[in-house]
Amino acid sequence: MVGFTDLLAGACLLPAVYGASSSVASSTSSAPYHQFTIPASVNYGENLIANIDDPQAVNAQDVCPGYKASGVQQSAKGMTAKLQLAGEACNAYGTDVDSLDLIVEYLAKDRLNVQITPTHVDRHNASWYQLSEAVVPRPKADKGATAENSDFEITWSNDPSFSFKVTRKATGDVLFDTTGTKLVFENQFIEFVTALPQDYNLYGLGEHIQQLRLLENQVMTIYASDIGDPIDGNIYGSHPFYLDTRYYEVDAEGTHTLVSSSAADQSKDYVSYSHGVFQRNAHGQEILTGTDKLTWRAIGGSIDLTFYSGPTQPEVTSSYQISTVGLPAMQQYYTLGFHQCRWGYQNWSVVEDVVENFEKFQIPLENIWLDIDYMHGYRDFENDAMRFSYSEGEKFLDKLHASGRHFIPIVDSAIYIPNPKNASDAYDTYTRGAKDGVFLKNPDGSTYIGAVWPGYTVFPDWHNPKSVSWWSNELDIWHKKIAYDGIWIDMSEVSSFCVGSCGTGNLTLNPAHPPFSLPGEPGNIIYDYPEGFAVTNSTEAAAASAAASSQAAAAGDGSSGASSTVSYLRTTPTPGVRNINYPPYTINHDQTGHDLAVHAVSPNATHIDGVAEYDVHNLWGHQILNATYHGLLKVSPSKRPFIIGRSTFAGSGKWAGHWGGDNYSRWAYMYFSIPQALSFSLFGVPMFGTDACGFNGNTDEELCNRWMQMSAFFPFYRNHNVLSAIPQEPYRWASVIEASKSAMAIRYAILPYFYTLFHLAHTTGSTVMRALAWEFPNDPSLANVNTQFLVGPSIMVVPVLEPLVDYTKGVFPGIKQGEVWYDWYTQTAVDAQPGVNTTIPAPLGHIPVFVRGGSILPMQEPALTTREARNTPWSLLTSLSSQGTATGKLYLDDGESLYPNATLSVQFQASKNKLTAMARGNWKEANPLSEVTVLGVTEGPHNVTFNGQTVPGSDVNYNATSHVLSVCGLQAMTADGAFSKHWTLMW
Asked: Would you call 531 exposed, middle or buried from its count of C-beta atoms within 10 A (0-12, 13-18, 19+)?
């Protein structure tokens, strides 16, 4: 769902096409019901010029004095010191804090923490908010961790002001260095600067739609925003974490020399070292990358840096999750199936038709989703009685569940507040919440009332100790009426369609239409199509272009009442006072005018503990995921909750997955979905996917064909699009049907591999979707590759990411070191050269997929649901390395229990013409093993045995051209189950 920022002018009164309750509509006799439209003007904030764009902005590095360290106390565990202002306060963007506490702690061999906080936390003077450990725990320290056994060394200096360096002992490389810069620490502005090597390789610092490796001279704003996927701008999530990878040339004497990844030479040998940095601060932030430095700014909070030494990306990511933000949630097996959604399924009959069409065309479908269409007046936890009645829903869901499928509805983040003059407008969810006082307040103690889809709304206060139990109870009550299987949390930045408490005094106008037209309403007809559409569909494209031009002309300048003369508001700091609505330092927030209150609850909204939303805005989405997780445990105490959420923070992965938000049906957004997914792998949120075929705008056949295939290899696989755009279910085009089924056949076959990867992520902090540079860390040429990706260590996908072509290009990593890659379809080894961007044929409907040599993939047969797939015989795809070896893993349980009482782990190993399976655990897997396929067998076998028993020659096939050995007919030999005992296959 989208909270649109393109506000269109409209009449104050519109027909009751949106949000009107049936009881209100029926009370108007024969006259048509008219609904109040919230004025567009209420969603315009102040125009503030971002400081980075302001020619009058002060450079704090030039005018501030920095600090001097004194009273330094060092120990085996770290050090402490007092930092005092080194000169006259500059008060550049707030009030300088005259005294700071420095704490350096060696947390473990691979972890170091540096904290800088105000010595005196006085709410009346400094108004300082320290991030609660109950919300975001501090990194754990290991017993026995000391400076002596640390991978790091930290040094400091007072020349000319306080600075510090963090060095990797093993290489002497300085990883973090503030030398020659000033520490600026004010009540509304923090700044520190670290040096970086030339041509650095940084990843992370999200959430943004951008390339994987961060660009130089870029401004990355971290501030949760309800906006439809602007490229490079801040969007839904807040993840102040980055990975830094550095490459070294190794000479004959073993000397390591730092080199630029762009200067990689395939004739030379390299090694890499990676480290991570996490800034535990939830305030609005801005990170600026220079050519040789990184500047980090925040509009509040503290400095709380944790360094992770790696030295590889997997070790950094694992340590970050295990020690700091938490391991990602284990997903239920069914969630790895295909998900279908759209904004615009009008009733249960339409939804049932969608499911039946998937069955008709034999396209796998696991989960059907509903957007806000199902709601009564767009209110959480209430179905529209006319279109989505509970009785019809019960019949539909009984049938859906009997077929092995599941239902996931959207739940928005704001709560409708009833019209006090309309007795029939009662809303029990609000009433129960108001009784417990769980909603945000204004500074004067009155209820903060914004506006979202239903009209004027209130917002849960997650600081209230009663809020989680209230939310859990609402989920439980609703589940008794409609048996959903998971929850989709939207609008959780948290979004509001007006600036400030605009509903105060206006509740008699509820329910109200948003202050902009919805897609499909007059003046907002969707005419957009992807790049290349004019070539393949010239007539339709010309008609759409003409209609779009007419619509734009009719809308005028689209200002909706906004002033045509833009004037900027600059605020100056007042000593000892915080201006939280318009802070003196304005971050480069993507909303119009940079006002933090546009499309969001205002910064001065107040929590029950007195904390202002300004201090915790980036945590609202994180906390609703926590509340929803516990609510789903109340619904089904023994099942793993399935949640997909929009706004996330560091650690949200332990409760939920994430989708890429309101992307566009454009090739550019298909392209950017790969780096976005890989970034969330770094952030510890492996259950990630984007809306296949795009959400906003109209898709077309070619884009949907390619995107449905690519998304089949993302962890979360969903098709979803906007109200009034053309339908884009995969059965809408014959070619997309075949393309989807082709890619889904691979996905469903390797579901056991996907599930095993998720278990490893859940238990060890590993990643599911991977960048090539992470899996092959000693090849600098891979540092900026984000047009292809790996699923785990063994599957590589090279999608087509542009229109009107029948090929793609990809690199095959590790070839120089003897790595072998096999084409999934032909099962033959790829002929590729090291470091070469190889052209790969890819006609429409074909996605290149490759299997890494040395891998063993446990597979089952594709089916229309995961339940059916789990009841099919097993097979193994063994792709031998150049040394004739391979390994693999399998994890199984019941696929849903929070704490399974029966599990099975299988280790596979192949070497010297022998494949073994070693199983342990008490999960009884009844399905037999039917087939083993071995790739890269250079000589035909004379005899094949399974646990010493000869396999009949009729069940053995060897292709001397492709070097593929297939052994079939193993069901009888594994009738007790494929992994009921250890076994060995020899050839």
From this structure: middle
Q: What are phi and psi of 797, to 5 degrees?
A: -120, 130
Q: What is the CATH number of the domain that holds 782?
A: 2.60.40.1180
Residues 896, 780 share a domain: yes
Looking at the structure, tell me whether residues 825 and 771 fall in a common domain: yes
Q: Are residues 686 and 790 in the same domain?
A: no
Indicate if 734 and 770 belong to the same structural domain. no
Query: Other CB atoms closer than 10 Å to residue 83's CB: what's the count?
Result: 25
pLDDT above 90 for 725:
yes
Q: Which residues are catalytic?
A: 490, 493, 662
Residue 428, H or E segment: helix 428-436
pLDDT of res. 817:
95
Nearest Cα residue to 10 out of 33, 43, 56, 49: 43
How is the chain split among helix, strand and coil, in percent rounded to 5? 25, 25, 50
Task: List the end-to-end C-alpha distance of the chain, in Å, as a whole number.
Answer: 55
Are residues 845 and 950 located together in one domain of the fold? yes
Query: The domain that contains 655 carries what CATH number?
Result: 3.20.20.80
Say what the alpha-carbon torsion angle 523, 525, 526, 527 is, to the nearest 10 degrees: -90
DSSP 3-state of 410: strand
Residues 475 and 339 in one domain: yes
Residue given tokens 């001097």 in the structure block: 68
H or E element: which one contains 397? helix 390-402
Q: For residue 263, what pLDDT is reported?
A: 85
Phi, psi of 665 (to 5 degrees): -80, 70
Residues 479, 625 share a domain: yes
- Region 542-567: mean pLDDT is 78
